[in-house]
Amino acid sequence: MNFLTIGHRGVMGVEPENTLRSFVAAQEAGLDAIELDLHLSKDGALVVMHDTDVDRTTDGTGPIAEKTLAELRALDAGRGERVPVFEEVLDAVHTPLQAEIKDKQAARALAEVMNRRGLADRVEVSSFHDEAIAEIKPLVPGVRTALIASRYGTDIVDRAVEAGAETVCLNIRRLTLEIVERARKADLRIIGWVVNTQDQLRLVRAFGLDGATTDHPDIKRTGRFTA
Length: 227
What we know:
Helix content: 25-40%
Protein name: Glycerophosphodiester phosphodiesterase
Domain GP-PDE: 3-224
Strand content: 15-25%
Pfam family, one: GDPD
Strand order of the largest sheet: 1-2-4-5-6-7-8-9
């Protein structure tokens, strides 16, 4: 299997994160997939943003869940970009997507879009929330899912299997050979994050991982040459 490079919120190292500009840049850089984050607005729109509030990434303040889509649209998400909705990303790029459910309530809204547009082959659904992964599995036939973890132990493998995930996306700072071996025995694919330097890239290649999530598109160019 080829080593996958996944653009973190597009290419957030060089463009405003989770914007159409960032996603298009990731596609133009030739990244194999693009990761993005999903929340629900006050009026139920499936919006693309990482944090629970808009303060860090826009010129506004306050929780996403307390703002309508129109109010979110009025914000500057960086370099004049607007907060996109999920379907705009689907139309702006053709690269495979990894859609992370940040707000557990977004699972059903995502499932509706995926079924309506036939996205099971194009979109992998990921989340830190085991229950979000377990919930979307029966809602979208054939969907591929990934359980994300930052602070974890060997139990992450059991959690992923129980939730029905095919992949684990793991913070490389806590990665151990024991966890990698347990994941392989469970037939789980392993993606490491966040990989932004050559030393980090060499680490994930040495562990034999299936891919890396990165903020920087040049990892794509160097990844296949690093043993």
